[in-house]
């Protein structure tokens, strides 16, 4: 063979191996299948090799497993797939492979008998080269080059380009095995998560079911005649149950986040309203510690926000609760601003509390971590609130930042993405002129009114115009001074408001009290409602009442009784079924407007009962069925759709939640219905009026108790005579008394009575009066309790 031919053969072999290496590098998923066989084919054909096979080492089984092979045309594939290695000889064999390729030229059967390849003794192999595949010196497997037709000298194969091919094969196998291990771990983790999810879902049901029973029992007890001590005990029980529910919710939220079973649900909402409600929700806790609650809002925001409002509420609620918990004096400030360019909103919660040690700052978001700030019991807790904040923030694609100094306070900052929602409109207020009486410091309300497009001024900037609205941010010296301001600046139908924290004794002539913080939409509604009450008609949207016949299906007797009581209180009748079978029988016998179906019941669950009810006929296929469950993770909407369940409500059931869902699915009748948000007795408003003086409050209550029967009798007489003017006069007089004792529902109802009388609409006046009597009794019950407290 000439030197030129040898050089040409080497060049050709290098080209074959380089092309094989390139193709090996280019293969991606499933490369160990047909792709790898096609890569081996040109190598085998060029070097005239009969069979090439790839075997991988299984350390647990102490064996080599053949995972692939290529055979020359006319050569039968090997049937043997596994080559066991004796455990006592495994180390010698692996050590032999680690030292480099093993050559069997002029192969003799005794060579095979003494190795792990003894099972190949009956195979007519003439020569073989075993090329080890290593990972950091450890054997992963080997590649065999075999010849069956004649002996073969494998020296020509052992070239630099072949070594490169083997090196790339080692890298590919390493990556492949790592990926397989990752997928196996992922599958194991996913399986473990699914088991945990099922377990937590079941725990959710098992914990919430007795909790729901406690809530229901306390609710039913509140509807009975209780002594002062009994009412106090019930309130303690209710607060304890609420606290336990909150703890359970936090634990379940954390598990849902960590298992990946919490989804993002975006909707359009009024951000300012949400923040004000959050502060109101935490106001009571702050008041108990004499802490100020402040809102710093960017009034440049003129549109709704599209985001997951529920999760934003959870994040901020946790931060506010923490701030109140770790603050003994001073204030809590919730701030909000947005960046319309980056579409991010930034929330801040700043407190003047005890602060966080620097060494704890990097750990405070860890689950169950409690910073060493004090050994006082009130600072202890579950230690998962901030963990939930962190995970919810990351779920929403946001960032979280904290800075703190001991005894100086803490600042938590959360940045979250958002989409722009519908533009907000305050057109109704833009036609009114507003005067704000304030001190030299910046006005609290002027920026709010200005952002709503109102014509707002103060005593310095007002010209000769008269205004529609006067708002007092300061106390006035006397009633005469108040009258002077009204006569000097106000139109004939001007309305006047004062801030709630001012001296209430000076503001008996006020048309309303404003409590801060207040959102612009709330402020608009408050002003427009006052105009309606004093000058116009009552909004018709409050004249819808729920009615209908319900079927309550629950295996727990207490749950059935509590739901029946709640439905009765909102104007509905109901029948009770203790299981799914009985529910089906009752649907066959009666017509229902709605069915409240417990999901987890023995023998036949709520889903199966719903399927059977839907199959009964036309009427049963249309009736709204509401799933009632204690399982916090019952959110499989595909399953609900398949079962034809219309909605879900979670235990423990709150009256306002149930009322909202029923209004969604039932046709309301045009019957007088007092707004749900109005209180029979606004205790907070009542005590503010007397600056917390229980003696004066008690005297007012006793006077009202003595006088109100006479007022009701005057109204009754006027209604019986169908005398519109007397109805207006008597109702107006009684309204003043009810307003003075903060009877919000009675005030609303008396306004309705006067408006109807003004229109000479007297046909249903007897029904209105009967409702007035019922509401008066309710108010008296609350006033009796208040009087007992002041004694």
How would you characterize the overall build of this protein?
- By secondary structure, the protein is α/β, with parallel strands linked by helices.
- It has four domains: 3-182, Beta-Lactamase; 267-423, Heat Shock Protein 90 (2-Layer Sandwich); 427-538, 3-Layer(aba) Sandwich (Rossmann fold); 683-790, Four Helix Bundle (Hemerythrin (Met), subunit A).
- Helix content is 48%, strand content 18%.
- The chain contains 24 helices and 24 strands.
- The strands form five sheets. Strands 3-2-1-6-5-4 form a six-stranded antiparallel beta sheet. It has a five-stranded mixed beta sheet with strand order 8-10-11-13-12, with helices on one face.
- Helix 11 (446-451) links the parallel strand 15 and strand 16.
- It is elongated, with a radius of gyration of 40 Å.
- The N and C termini lie far apart (122 Å).
- Residues 374-383 and 536-544 have low confidence and may be disordered.
Largest sheet: 6 strands, antiparallel
Q: Helix coverage percent of residues? A: 40-55%
Number of domains: 4
Average pLDDT confidence is 80
Strand content: 15-25%
Trace the largest sheet across and list its strands.
3-2-1-6-5-4
Low-confidence stretches: 374-383, 536-544
Helix/strand/pairing class, anyone? alpha/beta
Q: Quickly name the level 1 CATH class of the largest domain.
A: Alpha Beta
Task: Look at the structure and name the CATH superfamily of the largest domain.
Answer: GAF domain
Radius of gyration: 40 Å
Task: Describe the global form.
Answer: elongated
Number of strands: 24
- The CATH topology annotation of the largest domain reads as Beta-Lactamase
CATH architecture of the largest domain: 2-Layer Sandwich
**N-C termini distance:** 122 Å
């Amino acid at each position: 063979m000439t030197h030129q031919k040898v050089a040409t053969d080497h060049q050709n072999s290098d080209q074959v191996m380089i092309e094989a290496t390139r193709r090996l590098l280019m293969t991606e998923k499933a490369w160990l299948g047909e792709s790898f066989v096609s890569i081996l084919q040109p190598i085998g054909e060029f070097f005239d090799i009969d069979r090439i096979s790839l075997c991988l080492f299984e350390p647990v089984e102490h064996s080599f497993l053949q995972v692939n092979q290529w055979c020359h045309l006319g050569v039968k594939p090997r049937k043997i797939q596994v080559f066991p290695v004796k455990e006592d000889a495994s180390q010698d064999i692996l050590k032999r492979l680690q030292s480099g390729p093993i050559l069997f030229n002029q192969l003799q059967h005794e060579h095979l008998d003494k190795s792990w390849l003894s099972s190949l003794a009956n195979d007519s192999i003439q020569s073989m080269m075993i090329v080890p595949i290593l990972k950091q010196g450890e054997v992963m497997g080997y590649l065999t080059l075999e010849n069956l037709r004649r002996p073969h000298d494998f020296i020509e194969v052992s070239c630099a380009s072949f070594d490169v091919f083997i090196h790339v094969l080692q890298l590919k196998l390493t990556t492949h095995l790592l990926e397989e291990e990752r997928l196996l771990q992922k599958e194991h983790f996913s399986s473990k998560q699914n088991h945990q999810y099922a377990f937590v879902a079941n725990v959710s049901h098992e914990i919430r079911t007795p909790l729901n029973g406690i809530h229901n029992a306390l609710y039913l007890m509140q509807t009975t005649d209780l002594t002062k001590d009994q009412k106090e005990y019930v309130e303690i029980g209710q607060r304890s149950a609420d606290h336990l529910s909150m703890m359970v919710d936090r634990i379940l939220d954390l598990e849902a986040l960590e298992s990946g079973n919490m989804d993002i649900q975006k909707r359009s909402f009024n951000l300012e309203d949400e923040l004000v409600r959050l502060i109101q929700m935490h106001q009571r806790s702050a008041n108990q510690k004499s802490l100020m609650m402040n809102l710093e809002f960017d009034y440049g925001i003129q549109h709704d926000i599209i985001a997951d409002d529920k999760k934003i509420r959870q994040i901020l609620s946790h931060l506010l609760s923490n701030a109140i918990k770790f603050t003994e004096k001073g204030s809590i400030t919730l701030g909000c601003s947005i960046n319309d360019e980056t579409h991010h909103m930034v929330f801040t919660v700043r407190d003047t509390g005890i602060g966080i040690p620097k060494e704890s700052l990097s750990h405070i978001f860890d689950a169950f971590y409690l910073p060493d700030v004090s050994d006082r019991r009130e600072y202890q807790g579950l230690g998962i609130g901030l963990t939930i904040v962190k995970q919810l923030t990351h779920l929403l694609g946001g960032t979280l930042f904290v800075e703190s100094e001991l005894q100086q306070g803490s600042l938590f900052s959360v940045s979250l993405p958002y989409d722009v929602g519908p533009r907000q409109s305050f057109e109704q207020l833009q036609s009114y002129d507003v005067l704000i009486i304030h001190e030299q410091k910046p006005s609290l309300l002027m920026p709010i009114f200005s952002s709503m497009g109102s014509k707002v001024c103060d005593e310095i900037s007002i010209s000769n115009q008269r205004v529609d609205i006067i708002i007092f941010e300061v106390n006035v010296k006397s009633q005469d001074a108040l009258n002077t301001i009204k006569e000097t600046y106000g139109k004939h139908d001007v309305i006047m408001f004062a801030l709630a924290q001012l001296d209430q004794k000076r503001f008996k002539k006020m048309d309303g009290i404003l409590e801060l913080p207040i959102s612009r939409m709330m402020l608009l509604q408050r002003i427009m409602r006052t105009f309606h009450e004093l000058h116009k008609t009552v909004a018709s949207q409050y004249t819808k009442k729920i009615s209908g016949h319900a079927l309550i299906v629950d295996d727990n007797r207490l749950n059935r009784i509590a739901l029946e009581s709640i439905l009765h209180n909102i104007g509905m009748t109901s029948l009770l079924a203790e299981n799914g079978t009985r529910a089906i029988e009752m649907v066959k016998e009666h017509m229902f407007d709605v069915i409240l179906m417990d999901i987890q019941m023995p023998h036949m669950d709520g889903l199966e009962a719903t399927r059977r009810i839907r199959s009964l006929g036309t009427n049963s296929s249309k009736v709204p069925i509401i799933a009632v469950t204690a399982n916090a993770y019952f959110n499989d909407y595909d399953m609900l759709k398949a079962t034809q369940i219309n909605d879900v409500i979670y235990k423990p059931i709150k009256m306002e939640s149930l009322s909202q869902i029923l209004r969604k699915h039932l046709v309301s009748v045009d019957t007088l219905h007092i707004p749900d948000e109005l209180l029979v007795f606004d205790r907070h408003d009542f005590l503010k009026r007397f600056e917390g003086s229980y003696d004066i409050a008690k005297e007012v209550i006793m006077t009202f108790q003595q006088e109100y029967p006479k007022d009701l009798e005057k109204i009754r007489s006027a209604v019986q005579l169908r005398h519109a003017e007397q109805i207006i006069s008597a109702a107006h007089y009684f309204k003043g008394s009810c307003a003075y004792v903060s009877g919000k529902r009675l005030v609303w109802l008396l306004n309705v009575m006067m408006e109807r009388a003004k229109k000479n609409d007297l046909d249903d006046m007897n029904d209105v009066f009967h409702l007035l009597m019922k509401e008066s009794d309710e108010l008296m019950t609350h006033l009796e309790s208040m009087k007992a407290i002041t004694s």
